[in-house]
Design a protein that fits this description.
Blueprint: H1 5-17, E1 20-25, H2 31-41, E2 44-48, H3 52-57, H4 61-66, E3 70-75, H5 83-93, E4 98-105, H6 108-117, E5 122-126, H7 132-135, H8 140-146, H9 150-153, H10 158-179, H11 186-198, E6 202-203, H12 206-213, H13 217-229, E7 233-236, E8 252-255, H14 258-264, H15 270-274, H16 279-295, E9 300-304, E10 310-317, E11 320-326, H17 336-345, E12 349-354, E13 360-363, E14 366-370
Parallel strand pairs: 1-4, 1-5, 2-3, 3-4, 11-12, 12-14
Antiparallel strand pairs: 6-8, 7-8, 9-10, 10-11, 13-14
Length: 384
């Protein structure tokens, strides 16, 4: 079993500060496994709403849950969103005596129910795929190629990993979306996902996508909201600096899991990937997700001007601005665009993350930094 130490620390911190913690993420991303890792050292009651026995136990949820103390873990909570209203008075009546850990796949009912019924009582923990810290830096190529879903990463062969990811996509389109309250045609959403995959790492153009799909830009936006809420895509928002330059104001789009991206594009393995024209954009999205996992924040932006000056990631820490450029080539060096970003955005420092092995100072404010060393980055002190 792969130990997800940093995710476990985030979960422990959330449980310590709130009577209710919601651990959310895509289906089969590892929520139950993480909860079980926590339960090994912190005994509690585990309920799985997919089992008939636990459904019976919760046929009268107020009576049953009121009788429990300590930690109560409820898995697949999206199957019974009515529980949120039951949990609120219990934690109010028994402060400190009972805590709830709710596990669920992304769903409008979960987000709305938890936010409305448990306001002021709940902490959220979003669980993404496996990180390079969990898998080890020597396995970056496998993680990048297969993605961070544990069954895909741990598969016995590339072919088995790809088959699992293709099944995941089909199940998501045919079962998960309807269960989430979006009975959208699977064929339409598959075509939409394929189009997004081909535009991975690029600036969103809702009107262009709408014309290609034969739908309005409003419908495109609605589909994107659904996929973002399901942890399938990420929209990286632009930063607008107060400078006299025209700046791009549309979000950039990424599929959050590189393995799902590659499955949609028919990329079978690492050898196929490095020779594909999408490799640069795929690597960019992969690094963006790793930075988010490492710093435990989604408050990231990108920056681009119409004169083609660009910064892949703008990061705010302790009131200061830091920049990240992402390069796939080990021989690349930050160019004029990096210097413009440093000056226009008043960056404290710029790091260029690349797939090499050595930390290389380029200038007093620019450093080449290998992705394999991301979790030993000096900025991570105090932000883990």
């Amino acid at each position: 079993m792969i130990k997800r130490i940093r995710n476990l620390e985030h979960l422990e911190a959330a449980l310590a500060r709130s009577p209710v913690t919601a651990l959310l993420g895509a289906r089969q991303i590892g929520k139950t496994t993480l909860a079980m890792q926590y339960l090994r050292n912190n005994p509690g009651k585990y309920l799985d709403l997919e089992t008939h026995a636990d459904q019976l136990r919760l046929s009268n949820p107020e009576m049953y849950l009121s009788s429990l103390d300590g930690l109560v873990v409820i898995d697949e909570v999206q199957l019974n969103p009515g529980l949120f209203a039951v949990i609120r008075p219990i934690v109010d009546r028994k402060p400190g005596a009972v805590k709830f850990l709710l596990l669920g796949s992304a769903s409008p009912d979960i987000i709305r129910g938890v936010s409305e019924s448990l306001a002021g009582r709940v902490s959220f923990v979003d669980l993404s795929g496996l990180s390079i810290e969990a898998t080890g830096p020597d396995n970056i190529s496998v993680l990048w190629s297969r993605g961070g879903f544990p069954p895909a990463y741990c598969a016995s062969a590339d072919s088995s990993s790809l088959a699992w990811r293709m099944d995941f996509i089909r199940t998501f389109l045919e079962r998960d979306l309807p269960q989430m309250g979006y009975p959208l045609p699977a064929s339409t959403m598959r075509r939409f996902l394929m189009m997004l995959a081909s535009g991975h790492g690029q600036v969103l153009n809702l009107s262009s996508i709408g014309r290609s799909m034969g739908i309005s830009h409003v419908t495109v936006s609605r589909y994107l909201d659904v996929l973002e809420g399901a942890y399938i895509i990420r929209r990286l928002q632009p930063w607008h600096a107060n400078i006299r330059k025209r700046q791009v104001k549309s979000a950039k789009l990424y599929l959050r899991d590189s393995g799902i991206l590659h499955a949609l594009l028919g990329i079978r393995n690492y050898d196929d990937l490095v020779g594909n024209q999408i490799a640069g954009h795929s690597w960019e999205g992969f690094v963006v997700e790793e930075v988010i996992k490492a710093f435990n924040t989604d408050r990231l932006f990108y920056w681009r001007t119409h004169q083609n000056a660009e910064l892949d990631i703008l990061l705010f820490l302790n009131g200061k601005r830091y920049g990240i450029k992402i390069k796939l080539s080990e021989n690349s060096r930050p160019g004029r665009s990096a210097r413009i970003a440093i000056e226009d955005l008043e960056l404290e420092h710029l790091w260029c993350i690349y797939p090499g092995e050595n930390v290389i100072p380029i200038d007093e404010d620019i450093t080449l930094w290998p992705l394999r060393n991301l979790y030993s980055h000096p900025l991570l002190t105090g932000f883990s």
